[in-house]
Predict the structure.
Amino acid sequence: MKHQTPGPQDWTPLFQAFAEALDWALDLAGDLARSYPAELATIERVRTFVQKRIAGDPAHVRTDDLLFAIGLVAGAIERDVRPQLAAKPAPARTLRASRRPARAAPLRLNHRTPFSSIAAVH
């Protein structure tokens, strides 16, 4: 394994390794956004960024655009995976696993607690 000196890293190999998965994920995000032209344009800006980075070209994307795309991908995963998880039967519990853990004592703030003045204001 080749070690680099401290400084900015070249992420191109990572993007190249996940090229197909990234494109597929952006397709899922695009499917969720297809009825909303502005949001679909956001996904396409992220797709252009990813394609340029995979090619090894410098590229920039707004952080808001990237976070929006990631949120849509997460929504697509939840939409597609949650029903499958709900359909599976719950694992059998043993007597030991079904016992409740002891409850922790509640946190009590007083005038000596550093954050009590903040808590009292709100």
Q: What stands out?
A: The CA atoms of residues 34 and 79 lie 16 Å apart.
